[in-house]
UniProtKB/TrEMBL annotation:
Gene3D superfamilies: Skp domain (3.30.910.20). This is Putative Outer membrane chaperone Skp. Keywords: Coiled coil, Signal. It comes from Nitrospira moscoviensis. It holds the Pfam family OmpH.
Amino acid sequence: MVNGRTIGMGLGLAVVLGLGAADAAEPVRIGVMDQQLVMERSKAGKRALEDMKSYSLTRQKIINADDQELKELEQAIQDPNAKLSEAAKQEKQEQFRVKLEAYQRRLQDFNREIQQKQREMIAEYSKKIAEAAQAVAQKDGYLAILDKGNEAAIRVVIYHQPALDVTDAVTKEFDRQNK
């Protein structure tokens, strides 16, 4: 399936390559990078990923505690040795229902929070990585640096020679800019 983003990237690449062809005396330098690897290998990226992991784990601990509380309440309701009156049993079942609804709402809220935080982090760091890539391109004379992409996103570069990979240079520049 071809979407607008793919067509736009293809047209952009055609324009970039066309610009290089207009000045045949100067070779066209194009680099590729892996934005995900820059994030995973850079100091600032590792910190951001660790912060995200910590944030998620904190939320998970709360969910696990709520889950344990629900299990204990359910066991109390189902315990044949409890000798609960019918009214007490109904009260415990109502407590369980209310706590289950609260648990489900909290779980949904936490998932939304985490997804929002991830989107914000990706947007922030994509911009910072783009700035680092631009600095590398300007310093080293690249006409363009393309993101390789991955299986989860649109793969822009299907094949490239390893010598075109500037991921390490972009990572170093990213670290320099984001101490």
